Amino acid sequence: MIFKKAAVMLFARIRTALVLAGLLLVSTAFANVLPPDQLVKQITQETYVFVNQDAALQKGDTSKLIEWAEKSVISSFDFNRMTSLAVGKEWRQASPDQKKQLVQEFRKLLIRTFANAFVGIKKEQTIEYKPFKMNPDDQDVVVKALIIKPGTKPVDVNFSLEKTADSWKVYDVVLAGVSLITNYRDSFAQEIRASGMDGLIKMLAEKNKQLDQKAKAS
Question: Which top CATH class is 34-217?
Protein backbone atom coordinates (compact mmCIF):
# COMPACT_ATOMS: atom_id res chain seq x y z
CA MET A 1 0.00 0.00 0.00
CA ILE A 2 2.83 2.36 0.96
CA PHE A 3 4.69 1.44 -2.22
CA LYS A 4 1.55 2.12 -4.28
CA LYS A 5 1.13 5.58 -2.71
CA ALA A 6 4.81 6.36 -3.30
CA ALA A 7 4.52 5.29 -6.93
CA VAL A 8 1.42 7.44 -7.44
CA MET A 9 3.18 10.44 -5.90
CA LEU A 10 6.25 9.83 -8.06
CA PHE A 11 4.22 9.64 -11.27
CA ALA A 12 2.33 12.78 -10.25
CA ARG A 13 5.61 14.65 -9.76
CA ILE A 14 6.96 13.41 -13.09
CA ARG A 15 3.76 14.49 -14.86
CA THR A 16 3.94 17.93 -13.23
CA ALA A 17 7.59 18.27 -14.21
CA LEU A 18 6.79 17.33 -17.82
CA VAL A 19 3.94 19.86 -17.96
CA LEU A 20 6.20 22.60 -16.58
CA ALA A 21 8.94 21.65 -19.02
CA GLY A 22 6.45 21.82 -21.88
CA LEU A 23 5.25 25.23 -20.79
CA LEU A 24 8.83 26.41 -20.51
CA LEU A 25 9.63 25.21 -24.02
CA VAL A 26 6.53 26.92 -25.44
CA SER A 27 7.25 30.20 -23.65
CA THR A 28 10.88 30.07 -24.77
CA ALA A 29 9.81 29.46 -28.37
CA PHE A 30 7.46 32.45 -28.32
CA ALA A 31 10.14 34.58 -26.68
CA ASN A 32 12.47 33.77 -29.58
CA VAL A 33 9.93 34.71 -32.26
CA LEU A 34 11.21 37.70 -34.21
CA PRO A 35 8.74 40.62 -33.78
CA PRO A 36 6.91 41.59 -36.99
CA ASP A 37 8.55 44.99 -37.38
CA GLN A 38 11.99 43.45 -36.93
CA LEU A 39 11.14 40.74 -39.45
CA VAL A 40 10.15 43.34 -42.07
CA LYS A 41 13.37 45.25 -41.42
CA GLN A 42 15.39 42.06 -41.79
CA ILE A 43 13.71 41.11 -45.08
CA THR A 44 14.02 44.55 -46.67
CA GLN A 45 17.50 45.38 -45.41
CA GLU A 46 19.00 42.01 -46.37
CA THR A 47 17.49 42.33 -49.84
CA TYR A 48 18.65 45.94 -50.18
CA VAL A 49 22.23 45.03 -49.24
CA PHE A 50 22.29 42.01 -51.56
CA VAL A 51 21.02 44.02 -54.54
CA ASN A 52 23.44 46.88 -54.00
CA GLN A 53 26.53 44.70 -53.80
CA ASP A 54 25.97 42.98 -57.16
CA ALA A 55 26.54 44.79 -60.47
CA ALA A 56 24.36 42.34 -62.44
CA LEU A 57 21.40 43.03 -60.17
CA GLN A 58 21.92 46.75 -60.60
CA LYS A 59 21.54 46.23 -64.35
CA GLY A 60 18.24 44.40 -63.94
CA ASP A 61 19.21 40.71 -63.77
CA THR A 62 16.49 39.16 -61.61
CA SER A 63 17.57 35.50 -61.84
CA LYS A 64 20.28 35.82 -59.20
CA LEU A 65 17.97 37.71 -56.84
CA ILE A 66 15.26 35.05 -57.21
CA GLU A 67 17.78 32.29 -56.45
CA TRP A 68 19.02 34.16 -53.37
CA ALA A 69 15.49 34.97 -52.15
CA GLU A 70 14.47 31.30 -52.38
CA LYS A 71 17.25 30.43 -49.93
CA SER A 72 16.75 33.33 -47.53
CA VAL A 73 13.74 35.62 -47.17
CA ILE A 74 10.97 33.71 -48.98
CA SER A 75 10.35 31.45 -45.96
CA SER A 76 8.92 34.52 -44.18
CA PHE A 77 5.98 34.75 -46.61
CA ASP A 78 2.67 32.87 -46.34
CA PHE A 79 1.99 31.92 -49.96
CA ASN A 80 -1.06 29.82 -49.09
CA ARG A 81 -2.86 32.82 -47.63
CA MET A 82 -1.58 35.09 -50.39
CA THR A 83 -3.04 32.78 -53.01
CA SER A 84 -6.39 32.45 -51.25
CA LEU A 85 -6.62 36.25 -50.96
CA ALA A 86 -5.84 36.71 -54.64
CA VAL A 87 -8.33 34.05 -55.78
CA GLY A 88 -11.00 35.38 -53.41
CA LYS A 89 -14.30 33.61 -52.74
CA GLU A 90 -13.68 31.19 -55.62
CA TRP A 91 -10.87 29.66 -53.53
CA ARG A 92 -13.47 27.51 -51.75
CA GLN A 93 -14.44 25.94 -55.07
CA ALA A 94 -10.94 24.63 -55.74
CA SER A 95 -10.04 21.01 -55.01
CA PRO A 96 -7.01 20.27 -52.79
CA ASP A 97 -4.94 19.45 -55.89
CA GLN A 98 -6.02 22.65 -57.64
CA LYS A 99 -5.16 24.69 -54.53
CA LYS A 100 -1.72 23.10 -54.46
CA GLN A 101 -1.11 23.97 -58.12
CA LEU A 102 -2.47 27.50 -57.67
CA VAL A 103 -0.13 28.16 -54.73
CA GLN A 104 2.81 26.74 -56.66
CA GLU A 105 2.23 28.90 -59.75
CA PHE A 106 1.22 32.07 -57.90
CA ARG A 107 4.26 31.70 -55.66
CA LYS A 108 6.51 31.71 -58.73
CA LEU A 109 4.75 34.80 -60.09
CA LEU A 110 4.97 36.69 -56.80
CA ILE A 111 8.67 35.94 -56.33
CA ARG A 112 9.31 37.43 -59.77
CA THR A 113 7.12 40.42 -58.92
CA PHE A 114 9.04 41.10 -55.71
CA ALA A 115 12.35 40.57 -57.49
CA ASN A 116 11.42 43.10 -60.17
CA ALA A 117 10.42 45.57 -57.46
CA PHE A 118 13.83 45.34 -55.79
CA VAL A 119 16.22 44.74 -58.67
CA GLY A 120 17.93 47.88 -59.86
CA ILE A 121 17.23 49.75 -56.61
CA LYS A 122 19.83 52.47 -56.18
CA LYS A 123 22.03 53.12 -53.16
CA GLU A 124 20.57 56.59 -52.75
CA GLN A 125 17.14 55.04 -52.20
CA THR A 126 16.42 54.21 -48.59
CA ILE A 127 13.62 52.68 -46.52
CA GLU A 128 12.28 54.54 -43.52
CA TYR A 129 10.29 52.52 -40.99
CA LYS A 130 7.38 54.17 -39.23
CA PRO A 131 6.89 53.75 -35.44
CA PHE A 132 5.31 50.39 -34.68
CA LYS A 133 3.20 49.34 -31.70
CA MET A 134 1.31 46.13 -31.03
CA ASN A 135 -0.49 44.38 -28.19
CA PRO A 136 0.92 41.11 -26.82
CA ASP A 137 -2.14 39.17 -28.02
CA ASP A 138 -2.23 40.63 -31.56
CA GLN A 139 -2.35 37.96 -34.27
CA ASP A 140 -2.55 40.25 -37.31
CA VAL A 141 -0.57 43.48 -37.74
CA VAL A 142 0.58 46.02 -40.34
CA VAL A 143 4.16 47.30 -40.43
CA LYS A 144 4.40 50.61 -42.27
CA ALA A 145 7.40 52.06 -44.10
CA LEU A 146 8.38 54.64 -46.70
CA ILE A 147 10.60 54.24 -49.74
CA ILE A 148 12.66 57.42 -49.91
CA LYS A 149 14.19 58.54 -53.21
CA PRO A 150 15.84 61.97 -53.42
CA GLY A 151 13.85 64.44 -55.49
CA THR A 152 10.60 62.44 -55.48
CA LYS A 153 7.65 61.98 -53.15
CA PRO A 154 8.10 59.12 -50.63
CA VAL A 155 6.15 55.96 -51.46
CA ASP A 156 4.14 54.18 -48.77
CA VAL A 157 4.75 50.46 -48.42
CA ASN A 158 2.80 48.49 -45.84
CA PHE A 159 3.43 44.88 -44.87
CA SER A 160 0.55 42.81 -43.48
CA LEU A 161 1.63 39.94 -41.24
CA GLU A 162 -0.08 37.16 -39.32
CA LYS A 163 1.19 35.17 -36.38
CA THR A 164 1.56 31.45 -37.00
CA ALA A 165 2.45 28.71 -34.52
CA ASP A 166 6.16 29.56 -34.51
CA SER A 167 6.70 32.84 -36.38
CA TRP A 168 5.23 35.89 -38.10
CA LYS A 169 4.53 35.61 -41.83
CA VAL A 170 3.98 38.31 -44.46
CA TYR A 171 0.75 37.75 -46.41
CA ASP A 172 0.34 41.04 -48.27
CA VAL A 173 2.34 44.05 -49.39
CA VAL A 174 0.53 47.30 -50.17
CA LEU A 175 2.57 49.68 -52.32
CA ALA A 176 1.27 53.25 -52.78
CA GLY A 177 -2.18 52.10 -51.67
CA VAL A 178 -2.32 49.13 -54.05
CA SER A 179 -2.23 45.57 -52.71
CA LEU A 180 0.21 43.42 -54.66
CA ILE A 181 -1.98 40.43 -53.77
CA THR A 182 -5.63 41.45 -54.10
CA ASN A 183 -4.72 43.46 -57.21
CA TYR A 184 -4.87 40.12 -59.03
CA ARG A 185 -8.39 39.29 -57.81
CA ASP A 186 -10.41 40.80 -60.69
CA SER A 187 -8.30 39.20 -63.42
CA PHE A 188 -8.32 35.86 -61.59
CA ALA A 189 -12.11 35.97 -61.15
CA GLN A 190 -12.54 36.80 -64.84
CA GLU A 191 -10.34 33.85 -65.86
CA ILE A 192 -12.22 31.49 -63.53
CA ARG A 193 -15.56 32.59 -65.00
CA ALA A 194 -14.26 32.05 -68.52
CA SER A 195 -12.20 28.88 -68.14
CA GLY A 196 -12.70 27.54 -64.62
CA MET A 197 -10.08 26.91 -61.95
CA ASP A 198 -7.96 24.80 -64.30
CA GLY A 199 -7.99 27.69 -66.75
CA LEU A 200 -6.52 29.99 -64.07
CA ILE A 201 -3.82 27.44 -63.26
CA LYS A 202 -2.97 27.16 -66.96
CA MET A 203 -2.86 30.96 -67.33
CA LEU A 204 -0.46 31.31 -64.39
CA ALA A 205 1.76 28.48 -65.66
CA GLU A 206 1.94 30.09 -69.11
CA LYS A 207 2.72 33.49 -67.59
CA ASN A 208 5.56 32.00 -65.53
CA LYS A 209 6.89 30.19 -68.60
CA GLN A 210 6.93 33.47 -70.57
CA LEU A 211 8.76 35.23 -67.73
CA ASP A 212 11.30 32.39 -67.58
CA GLN A 213 11.97 32.66 -71.30
CA LYS A 214 12.25 36.44 -71.08
CA ALA A 215 14.72 36.18 -68.19
CA LYS A 216 16.89 33.68 -70.08
CA ALA A 217 16.87 35.86 -73.20
CA SER A 218 17.97 38.99 -71.33
Answer: alpha beta
